[in-house]
Amino acid sequence: MFRKSELRHSFRDMWAQDEREGICAHEFCPSLCWEHLPDQAGEVDLEESPIYHICLYPVGDRKFYGTMVCPACKHAWFHRGCIQGQDLNAGIYCIQCLLCSNGGAFLSEMLTMGIRIPDSPPSWEDSRMDTALAQGTATAVPVGAFAPGGREQAEQEGMTSRGAGTAFSRKNYRLSTEPEKSKVTGIVNSRLLNDYLHRVFTNADGNQPAAAYRKHLTFQNLQEHLERLLAEENGSEDSRDQVAEGRLGPSTVVLDHTSGFEGLLLVDDDLLGVIGHSNFGSIRATTCVYKGKWIYEVLISSQGLMQIGWCTLNCRFNQEEGVGDTPDSYAYDGNRVRKWNVTTTNYGKSWAAGDIVSCLIDLDEGTIAFCLNGISLGTAFDNITRGAGMAYFPAISLSFKESVAFNFGSRPLRYPLVEGYRPLQDPPVADLVKARKLLGYLKNVIHIGIDVTEGKLVEKDTSMWQLQGEPTVLITLAHIFNYFSPLMCKVYLVEDVLMTFLLSILERGGAVDAHPLIQQLLDLMWLLMEEYEVHECLKQLLMSLLRAYRFSPIIPDLGLQIHYLRLTIAVLKHEKSRKYLLSNVLFDVLRSVVFFYIKSPLRVEEAGLQELIPTTWWPNRFTKEGKESKEVKEESAEERLRRRAYERGCQRLKKRIEVVEGLQVQILKLLLNNKDRGGGEASRYIFLNKFRKFLQENASNRGNLTVLCPPEYMVCFLHRLIAALRFFWDGHKTKTPAALSSEEAYIPPQLFYNGKVDYFDLQRLGGLLSHLKKTLKDDLAAKANVLIDPAELQAVTMDDLDEDEESATSAAQRPSAALAIGGALARPGWLSSPTLGRANRFLSTAAVSLMNPRRPLGTLEKIKVRTLSVEQRTEEDIEGSHGNEGLLLGRPPEEPDQPITENSLLEILDGIVMMYNLSVHQQLGKMVGVSDDVNEYAMALKDTEEKISRCPKRRRDIHEELLKSQKVFSEKLNHLSRRLAWINVTIYSKEKMQDIYWLLRVCIRTIEHGDRTGSLFAFMPEFYLSVAMNSYSALKNYFSPVNSMEELPGYEETLMRLAAILAKHFADSRIVGTDIRDSLMQALASYVCYPHSLRAVERIPEEQRISMMKNLLAPYEQRPWAQTNWILVRLWRGCGFGYRYTRLPHLLKTKPEDASLPSLQKPCPSTLLQRHMADLLRSDRDLAPSFLNSVLNQLNWAFSEFIGMIQEIQQAAERLERNFVDSRQLKVCATCFDLSVSLLRVLEMTVTLAPEIFLDWNRPSSELLLRRLAQLLNQVLNRVTAERNLFDRVVNLRLPGLESVDHYPILVAVTGILVRLLVDTDVQG
Q1: Is the preceding peptide bond at 1021 cis, omega within 30 degrees of 0?
Q2: Most distant CA pair in the chain: distance in Å?
Q3: Which ranges of 573-679 does DSSP label H, i.e. alpha helix?
Q4: Quick one: 164 exposed, middle or buried, by C-beta within 10 A (0-12, 13-18, 19+)?
Q5: Residues 6 or more apart from 1156 whose CB is under 8 A from it?
Q6: Rounded distance between C-alpha atoms, residue 546 and residue 581, angstroms
Q7: What angle do CA 503, 509, 513 make, to 5 degrees?
Q8: What pTM, to 2 d.p., does this model score?
Q9: Which segments constitute the B30.2/SPRY domain (predicted)?
Q10: Rounded to whole angstroms, how far apart are CA atoms 1263 and 1248?
Q11: Under DSSP, is residue 555 helix (H, G, I), strand (E, B) or coil?
């Protein structure tokens, strides 16, 4: 394919003329084929019998491509071939309409329509025209080259000259040096053009020769002049010879994926990123050094166990020994903060994900050193082995799922601050010099303007420069881009030249919109570069921005991160660039969610948090057991001042982080734009498809940690996506008042069964989707008008069987194929590296893949009715039109006929809920660990200070040791309190809490709407119930005490609605999954443990309360009964005999630190639910016997198991050899004891609430129940109360894990039952 700029010099050989029609075509250029023929814009009425004004033939009654009309007068008609011949003779200085003599508009239209116009005087005045034609130097413009959006827009708009943006200006210029011969056209006169070109294309020193010594420049000799300038001071040959000394191996340095590795490794496409996939895999580079000073960088993607450094070819590694564990290999380990060379010692600082390690070797002095983020860690090794046969390779050993990316010099080093050290790979010096020169010429074009009226050059404000289509400027830029474009396909030049230039534009401050120059430059790139060049340039630019953002050090004002995000926004604001990046780069090549992550600083000092938060503070209201003290102590004046200073510092930090978060939300708003339909699909629908694939990749590979998006990224991505979604949701509400606001958002139930949204293989409430389609096909047809063909279901079943067989066959064949390619296993396309690119090589010394086969990403779910693959969906399939409801197809009658919002926003909301379930909740719980560490150190510091106050003055040695401990604890607390401030702002702030609360309410409304559909509720994915339960748990446990859930709007109502869901669905027959049923039961058990949530259960409708209690009283057989029993015990706790304790009474004196158990919350009985239970047991004569018999059966089993376990423990304790009891055995024993006590408490509850069940002889089952109860109580008393029996001996052993096993808990439960029986027997006579 010809380059756009080359076409300007080769039109003589490219055009073929059709004499009859005057149609131009060319066999090489797709822009000029029959399908891309441009046409003039505007409707021009054909006059009566018009004629062509050159050949005088009649026009006829139709217009075609070979017909052209003057854009000014609309009356002059020409054949394309005729006007081409005329313009070749007239030249660019005398071209005009033969009828109206218009020059400017006529020239613009001819250039736009691809008419070849020589840059020379007319042929009747200058004989040089023939020479120019013969040499092919006449200036011609390809069809569509000057259209605002490039060829594509030209094809759509018919090559109009009326376009905006980069269309030609209608301003007229004086062209001739002779006033009497002035013509109105767009090209400046010869003298002014010469001055302009000399100002743009300066010499290497930036100076211009005197006018008398300057060569006269025109567009004919500009190419020669430009080539001469670019050839000046090219020292590439000298530099290449110089760099080769001291280095052996290929000039392009990559990781050796053929023989230089050990273990299982995943290597990226570019052979620079690597992920560990075994215990301790090792790999080295392809190039070694034996002389001189060398440096390379390693971008740390995860902060786990890795050893980075240098090794020789003789080093042999295995799964236990890596770089630094053998002679002649040297490594730095920032995870353990040590250096390794057979032996190990402390060295350096700890690294974190997002850091950059520089590895330096000086083979002249024999030393190895390391830097962390540009800061030297000092010399690590000296006197390393040198001499004949000794050459060192960059190398790394890393454990499972750890990942890094190397930079040997293929990109500019981030910290090239060490003098005398050279990267292992030579920079492209010649190309770098050339690119910088061309960029300078481009800056000159932007900076220099032409004032044709005054006939002089003027300085222009570069920030507001716009490409207005002046032919002089366009042709000048075309010459520059002719050389600049191929250079911009190289990553080194993009990062060093282009990105640096674009960042400098934004350094002037202000909003991104205040710098339109970047948009103009992107327009230029699409206009003057080939598409493959623009694509590669944009891809490398975004990858460079991603690396720069991710691996930039954290500074107090987050200035670096803000800088890179602003440029990312500026690039994505360009519509055509945004759509290309969305379609081909974001989510496909890059982990684009990295742009929405704000990494947490591991080293507080380097992040500048000491200056930002100079005063630290931590809560001091915890007891020695780690629980919040119930006593509210008066805060001292000093503590109050410290707390307020700390809070002010946190607010300063929050404001700076909010700036970054705001920029991240701006990026998402650009990606979710659904109004940019020019030139194809809107950005939002491209994003939707990519987002769905991203979710599928993370949902389908839950067990493969190396391919999942890191959960810390997902947390930030979720919050930014919620902010952008609510922005568009409420914007739609403003335009459509009948729609719902984001505060009322929910997912309509038809999305779960109409097949418009793919839920992959995620479990539904009713089981497998294929099973639901078969069993509920009649309900689907009746309620949702969704028809299922039985023959299709049968075919699907057979297809699934065939696929399983094929997968097994391909899996069996894969190892043999891997051996044939030398151990580099082909890697599925869906497997992406957590570094920066896609990994496509799976390296294994055993050449065996560890990955399980799975279906490819893009396969169609055949069992889904009317399902389109992600790639096939269009905007109409999502939003619907003309009676087609899109995603809302199949609305059930229970669902209100009311607009909710745009369908695309519903799918994004559904993806947000899925994202929370995949990893966000887990990460929220993980980050609470920092707060727990603060509490532990605070307690340790408080205890140490108390010891210091009690230490006798004569024991100075003890006092000094305590002071050292106090200093260590204080320093650690200062560090943790600042880090906790960062985490509270980025993860646990009030705004983040409101996002999770909003998500909880969305899930509640979605479940409520789905529940109304009856049997179709079974189609809802399980994760909606999981997110409802987990988000409530996060709000209650993770965000306090920083923020309180009680302060959220509508908190009481939300609590009650969630309680109603738990009460109704924990025993819902439509829910078949055992895991989700257990989760519902556990959530309900947690709900009744706390007074506030228990009151919410009591506020749900009475019918639901009674139904809940009836389900709880169902027989214990054939179901998980322990949680049910626990719920009943919690409803009773505080009302039983001796059942109000929160600390185990038998341990208060002997071991008070063990007296508090997590399960012993403050009693909060529910008399209302107890009353419902009593009414049910009295009124239903079949319910009471079946329930009590099951309780007695379980009590008999639990207590028998307990006795058997303590017999084994006693036998183990009496052996003469070492006393050893398995901790797991102790745990099972304690569990059986706790179950026995809880079952006895339920019996006590039943006897107390409804004694007539045992004592009313009119009931047929009373006598039998009373007899069974008496037998079991007698068995318990015999085993527990006898002197020096088995129970006594085990209790007196005081084994760890058996703290709860004692006489008191079980005897008071038995006593409570007997007392109630005696009292009620006396009452009833």
Answers
A1: no
A2: 136
A3: 575-584, 609-612, 637-671
A4: exposed
A5: 625, 627, 1142, 1143, 1144
A6: 13
A7: 85
A8: 0.81
A9: 233-413
A10: 17
A11: coil
**Distance of CA 167 to CAs 147, 523, 529, 1107, Å?**
6, 11, 17, 73
What distances in angstroms separate CA 841 from CA 1, 299, 540, 735, 818, one per listed residue? 32, 19, 21, 50, 11
Burial class (CB in 10 A: 0-12, 13-18, 19+), 10: middle
In three-state secondary structure terms, 358 is: strand
Quick count: other Cβ atoms within 10 Å of Cβ 1142? 12
Instruction: Name 213's Cβ contacts closer than 8 Å, sequence gap at least 6.
Output: none
Reading the block at residue 358, the tokens are 């520089």
Q: pLDDT above 70 covers what percent of the chain?
A: 77
Q: What is the mean pLDDT of the chain?
A: 79
Asked if residues 16 and 38 have their Cβ atoms less than 8 Å apart, the reply is: no
Rounded distance, CA 166 to CA 516, Å?
A: 13
Residue pointed to by tokens 């309509």: 748
Q: Is 264 exposed, middle or buried (0-12, 13-18, 19+ CB in 10 A)?
A: buried
Name the strand (E) or helix (H) holding 17.
strand 16-17
Report the distance separating Cα 48 and Cα 1004, nearest Å.
73
Nearest to 44 by CA among 4, 72, 7, 84: 72
pLDDT confidence of 81, banded at 50, 70, 90?
confident
C-alpha–C-alpha distance, residues 1088 and 1162, integer Å: 11
Quick check: 173 and 452 in contact, CB under 8 A?
yes
Which helix H or strand E contains 695, and what residues bound it? helix 683-700
CA distance 614 to 751: 52
SS3 691: helix
Q: Which of 690, 692, 711 is nearest to 700 (CA)?
A: 692
Q: Say if CB 36 and CB 155 are below 8 A apart.
A: yes
Contacts (Cβ under 8 Å, ≥6 apart) of 663: 562, 565, 566, 569
- Packed helices 1121-1132 and 1167-1179: angle between N→C axes, nearest 10 degrees: 120
pLDDT in tens, 336-389: 999 999 999 999 998 888 889 999 999 999 999 999 988 899 999 998 988 888
Residue type for position 455: G
Spatial distance between the Cα atoms of 884 and 903, rounded to a whole number of angstroms: 12
Contact assessment for residue 331 and residue 307, using Cβ atoms and an 8 Å cutoff: yes
User: At 51, is the secondary structure helix, strand, or coil?
Assistant: strand
| Model pLDDT, residue 747 | 95
